[in-house]
From TrEMBL:
Residues 243-274, 317-365, 396-430, 552-579, 611-649, 674-849 form a coiled coil. Heterodimer of SbcC and SbcD. Keywords: Coiled coil. This is Nuclease SbcCD subunit C. The keyword Coiled coil applies. One of its GO terms (biological process) is double-strand break repair. It comes from Chengkuizengella marina. Residues 5-204 form the Rad50/SbcC-type AAA domain. Belongs to the SMC family. SbcC subfamily. Pfam families: AAA_23, SbcC_Walker_B.
Amino acid sequence: MRPIKMKMTAFGPYKQTEMIDFTQLQEHRLFVISGKTGAGKTSIFDAICFALFGEASGQDRNDSKMLRSQFAEDDLFTSVELEFGLKKRTYRIFRQLPHVKSGNKSATGERYEFFETTDGMEKPMCERFIVSQVNETVHQLLGINKEQFNQIVMLPQGEFRKLLTSDTENKEEILRRIFKTGLYKNVENILNDKRKQSQSLFEQQIKERGIYINSLKTALPMRENTPLTEVFGQEFYNQFQILDALEQEISFYKEQSNKSKLKLQQETKKLQDQTVKFHHAEAINQRFDTLEQKRKVKETLESQLPQMASIKKRIDLAQKTDLLELIEQNRTEAKKDFISKNEEMDKVKTRKVQIEQKLRDAMTAYQIEEKKQSELNQISKQLDHLGQWFPVVKELDQKQIQIKELEQKIELLQQTFKTIEQQIQSKNIEKNITRDEAKILEDKIRSLPEKQESLAEKREQSIVLTEYVKLKQVIVEVRVEVESSKLACEKIQNDYTQLEKHWIEGQASILASHLHDGELCPVCGSTEHPLKASYAREIPSKHDLDSSRKVKEITQDEYRKVEAKLENLLLQIKEKESAVIQYGFHLESINEEYHQFVQTGKKLKKEVELLKEKQIRLDQLKLILEKLNRELDQKTHNKDKNLAELNEMNTKYATAKALLEQSLVNIPEEVRSLETLEKRIGQIQKHKDDLQLQWKAVQEHLEQTKIEHSEVKVYFVNLENLMLETKEKLDKANRQYNQSLEEAGFSQELEYQSAKMSKEKREQLTQQIEEWRSNLSIVTKQIEELEDELKDKQKADLNKIQNDLDLLKNQVDHIREQFYKLHNYAERAEEGKQNILSVSKKVQEAEDQYQLIKDLYDLIRGDNSKRISFERYLQIEFLEQIIQMANQRLQKLSNGQYQLLRSDRLEKRGRQSGLGLDVYDHYTGQLRDVKTMSGGEKFNASLCLALGMADVIQSFEGGISIETMFIDEGFGSLDEESLTKAIDTLIDLQKSGRMIGVISHVQELKQSIPAVLDVKKTKEGISRTAFEVR
């Protein structure tokens, strides 16, 4: 990427629009950006970075809101437009920051553009100019992100030294962002999750095995002096001890179970034999009981012999009555017929008298109704007269009904009108109350936007204040750490000085002990030794001295690190102080003001939340007012509609009333009511119909009565003749019946009636006699057979046999219970063994899996002797490549004195290692920490690392074209020789085709480089730029 033109508007110290045309450099690819402190040199870098990535170049300026010029007019938006070239193609990118204009409540003006301008035509680089698509397109085009850009293209003030001097964690984060090694950190997290899962499964399997083992305590009895009881009696035991003990338990219970089973079979055989004996004896006893029962049955049957003879006699007499039953039936029917005819004669006589009286009454009624026929003509005339008024009165009645309906409608409309008026009045009252409440709330929330804006400002201030207060506290803690480290350093220095002094004195005493008079002193050459050195204490060894020196160097190194940390924190807090002072706070009372600021912020937040609740209530009230207005409009419309209907009904009512009154004038008053007229006509018509019906009825009744009288007279005569015939039949039947009784041998009728028996009864008694005879014969034969069967046999004592059988049953049940119990224990022990073996296999598998994953996880996360994770291992490879590329330039810059090396020392407190940097001094042969280098040396080393990283990233990403590099500050720390070599390095770089811009206050650098971008700041604080090319 090579910048062509850049236009900054209301950006940083540039109030208006500032154009920087890089084409003015012509063939010069190396230039200096020069200007006083605060003039806006770094803002140029920020603008380039903002145009490409939407953020400033330094991490301490990554808040885009801070990029807006404080001098800018309210209606002027902050924007950057950058034209740049890449791989022989040109592009234009534009970003404009939104801001809240005066009088507005929200920010406006946000805008993005990104075009390719290679052929002079603008071609959009993305479908929509939104920040996400623009950022993604820039990333795809450049092939690097902002972090990589800051490391290889734009080296912000103080940023590019971080890779050299920062601690191992910061280096790790830098390399992670640039080379995207965070993916391998995710692998570590995934493995950690799998480790936890496998550990959980492993522990679960162990717990399951423990459950199976503990269940044996209740599943099996704890017998005394057995291996299982002894194992469970121990405080600690394992599954192998349990399995060995279970084997013995299984063996024991199987052996006992087999013995019990054999004994059970023997006793069961005895029980079966005894049961057969019992059933045989029981059968013999039952046969003796049956014989006794049969004998008793025979005695009972023989005692029934007189009864059976009596029944036989009754059956013989009943057979004689069969011949007399038909004759008796004829006599009975004749007698019934005679009685029936007598009863009928009595009825006919009564009926004859009744009909004669009925005939006389009918004649009387006929004569009365005959006289009423003259009245019918008068009634017919009256009906004709009333019928003439019926249509007129009916029409009049319809008019009256219509008037009543109109009256009801009018009354209903009046009630509806009154109800609507009441509803409108109620809605108006509700509307007024709601409107008043809304007006009060509107007055109360007028200050909400102002308070929200104030709260947003306070939140911004809170971030700065909180960071400042925390930083101040950290500085206090670090100062204590510095003092502590300083005291420790001084103490160890004194200890080392004393030890060194004692070691020298000791060495001198050793040398003196070998001096003799007349011999030359190896130190001074004298032959006389009047004052020999002597040392009474124990002489320190060289090892003790070297160890003390190493402790001293380590302590001094730690002191320098803490001191550097304090220096860095002081620089950071100095930057924060300007922002704190800008917000109007006083540094001397910052803690009290911060506490007061927090309280004020909480109070303001509570006020804003309360006002927001009122705003919500106001919105609700507005909706209610809108609803009430709609309802009132609807009610008013309904009221007007109702009033129009009411007026129309009143008009119809008045018209109908007038027509009714006009009709009443011509109608007699007694027939004006349709109901009365209909009732009157109905009464008269009913009277006429009644007269006609009565006349017809008396005629028909008289005629019918005459017919009935004639029929009765005829029937009476016939019935008298029939009575004589029936009397003769009855006399004949009596004579025949008496004669038959005498012939059958019955002296009187009572004897005959007693001998009568039904056919069914006779058959029943006959069957009873036959069954008696059959039963007697059968039971006699059965007794003979049983007596023959039981000859020479006796009844057995069943109680004794049953007692013996019960004893055997109890014994068998006891043995069976013992067998099942032993068999069950054996099965439980075997089941427990199989469960433990099965779950132990699962435990082993889970443990192997867990250990495998744990080992892999520990390896990946760096839990090893080198304290190097898999991600850091890859980062070390990148760092080694960067160091290799950096040393090629550093060797030249340092005249072959320095060489950067990756440190193998382990970090303290178990932190990850492997990314530390040391510098090897070829002049002294010593290896030391890079933090011990001077400022100029650090700059050279950092510059070389940055250039080395650019080379590695370019080769790593592939296809990246790094045609530009910007460096901010750092040259002021170089001496004249180092500065010359640094310039030579930059010249070599620009010879390779790169454009290099350097921000520097160094006059020699400005004089050495012919192209200068001069940044000047006016008295008003506004900056301008101009190229000077010599």
